[in-house]
Amino acid sequence: MKTLNAVRLSGAEVLPLIEGGKGVAVSTGRSSGAWAAAGGVGTFSGVNADFYGADGQIVPQVYKGKTRRERHDELVAFGIKGGIAQAQMAHDLRGGQGRLHMNILWEMGGAERVLTGILEGAKGMVHGVTCGAGMPYKLSEITSRYGVYYYPIISSARAFRALWKRAYHKFSEFLGAVVYEDPWLAGGHNGLSNSEDPTKPEDPLPRVRELRAQMVEVGLKDTPIVMAGGVWYLRDWQEWIDNPELGPIVFQLGTRPLLTRESEISDAWKEKLLTLKEGDIYLNRFSPTGFWSSAVENDFLRELKGRNERQVAYSSDPVGEHLAEFSVGPRGRSVFLTPGDKIHAEGWMAQGFTEVLRTPSSTLIFVTPERGRQIRLDQIECMGCLSECRFSNWNQGPEGTSGKKADPRSFCIQKTLQDISHGGSIDNNLMFAGHGAYRFASDPFYSNRFIPTVKELVDRMMTGD
Q: What is the pTM of this model?
């Protein structure tokens, strides 16, 4: 194992290890403060973070607004208050060691307002901001205003080139590093483009070489690249360390920090991580963002799979092969299916999937009446947690809507991520994880259900394991 040398990030010399930020109250000040105290870079989530009452207990985020816009404004206010609370906690725990970063998603609702509000309220406590899920052109302008470094998350040299040309060249002094996130292996939302095959992972090494070449062209030869996604044992990355073609490399880990004593996910979630098998984590495209995402197979994903498989195309008028009349809804309005699809539809209804919902793609899906009621309720209770949501048709622009039909094939991501991060069911909620999470079960470090402290994990990583 090659020696890992310290690297300069966000104005200080630190270990080349970053705790990856995980949104909606998963990466907290407790874990990120401990990671920084261990000499690395801790990252707390600035996405719907928790805040606390006078008794030190988490304050439930209850929405009182009657309209989506009112609830969206409440969500932004909650996000700012929570981000400041997590920054303060992490700052207190790091004891002046390491660096502290915040992670946000550019496609989250009110991203610019939340980012600005947290940086304003936590001055001097946040040293860097990592940001992905979209093209965060304004990230550099906002963070530079506060003397804070920015760390864009990209999955291709092409994406970085676009960001650099449009905005980042104006604020190059605060570009802390470029985070290359493997779109096939990283947990959560992934940056797969339409030209990339989700079933055919590509070797990250040539892609990062291309990124470095692009950075060298614009004078960023010595700016670190952060490798994120698929990192487990550092001994597997020997050819990356001190590689002159790649320049300074830092490693980011999102999944392994979940299984530490400081991690505030539930015991049931931690136990699940220790029992995963290869293939239990896979890419899906059910997210209301429209992005691919990586999550653990469970009843939640299986229900979404079934919902999308029980789907047929329809026509409002008899045309082509769509000649079989079919009644939809309480008024029994007629649509037209192919004869084969009508047989499928009638079979699903006989199984109890009697609620028929229309999609923006001129298809019908078949769900149980109970599921149909829950889908509609979740759409009605939307609080605008994304800049645009295909599930509820919310858009944070002046109109408050995308102008498209709400898509019942997706789900309310805010509801499920809030529930699982606060002790809710691990079977009936979305459980994000990197594709290497199955390695918990075979890694001897975790034998006999051992759960390390953050410091123990960092020390272990530095040995190559």
A: 0.94
